[in-house]
UniProtKB/TrEMBL annotation:
Organism name: Ostreococcus tauri
Xref: SMART domains: ANK (SM00248)
GO CC term, one of those recorded: nucleus
Protein name, per record: Tyrosine kinase
Keywords: ANK repeat, Kinase, Repeat, Transferase
InterPro entries in the cross-refs: Ank_Repeat/CDKN_Inhibitor (IPR050776), Ankyrin_rpt (IPR002110), Ankyrin_rpt-contain_sf (IPR036770)
Keyword Endoplasmic reticulum among record annotations: no
ANK repeats: 71-103
SUPFAM superfamilies in the record: Ankyrin repeat (SSF48403)
Basic and acidic residues compositional bias, start-end: 162-171
Length: 206
């Protein structure tokens, strides 16, 4: 078992690193530390909302509009995730893939929902309608969220399930508290009774 507590060998590489979406580094060491989250130039421009840079890179064919970063995300993921509507519209105008999934099975609309960039989400939804896409049944229909894609559940259904589970957990906790209190009271009564009986026996011996 001790081998698992040792440092990994020098040649070991991990796909999952500590590089953050906004370019920060969470202290991962080694040559591979920046591989997954180090955004290519196009993706970085989309993240920053630099529409001119995005247009320049695409016009020069330095990147394809749907080129992925090492994590499988496109420029649209970044533009939507950081709420840059002008960049989103530019990418949509160039017929980008609006339902591309990254290595975590998340599409651009998932990024928009998570960051609460409603205008970007709405823009993608309208584009999906124009393109005749279908399949989703939740609040981002006709697109599918991560939950629909992986578990066939809408975000609303997931939220309802979470609420139901939380309520059930609360009830279970309350029942457990009541049982614990009752058990404690019974034990206390038993100990008091035993103490009284022991005291009475002591008096009889005298």
């Amino acid at each position: 078992m001790s081998q698992y507590a040792k440092e990994p060998p020098p040649e070991w590489e991990s796909k999952w690193t500590w590089r953050t979406l906004d370019g920060g580094d969470r202290a991962m060491r080694g040559a591979m530390a920046h591989k997954l989250f180090q955004a290519p130039e196009l993706h970085d421009a989309a993240r920053r909302g630099d529409q001119r840079k995005v247009i320049d890179l695409l016009d020069r064919r330095a990147f394809g509009v749907d080129d992925p970063d090492p994590g499988g995300r496109t420029a649209l993921h970044f533009a939507v995730g950081f709420g840059h509507e002008s960049v989103v519209m530019e990418l949509l105008r160039r017929n980008c893939d609006i339902d591309k999934r990254d290595d975590w099975m998340k599409s651009p609309v998932d990024f928009g929902l998570q960051a609460k960039h409603d205008r970007c989400v709405q823009a993608i939804r309208l584009e999906a309608v124009k393109r005749g896409l279908w399949g989703g049944k939740g609040r981002v229909a006709p697109l599918k969220t991560y939950w629909e894609h992986c578990y066939n559940m809408t975000s609303e259904e997931v939220e309802e399930k979470v609420r139901e589970n939380a309520e059930e957990a609360r009830k279970n906790y309350s029942r457990q508290q009541e049982n614990d209190t009752q058990s404690y009271q019974e034990q206390l009564k038993s100990r008091v009774k035993q103490a009284i009986e022991a005291k009475a026996r002591g008096r009889k011996r005298r």
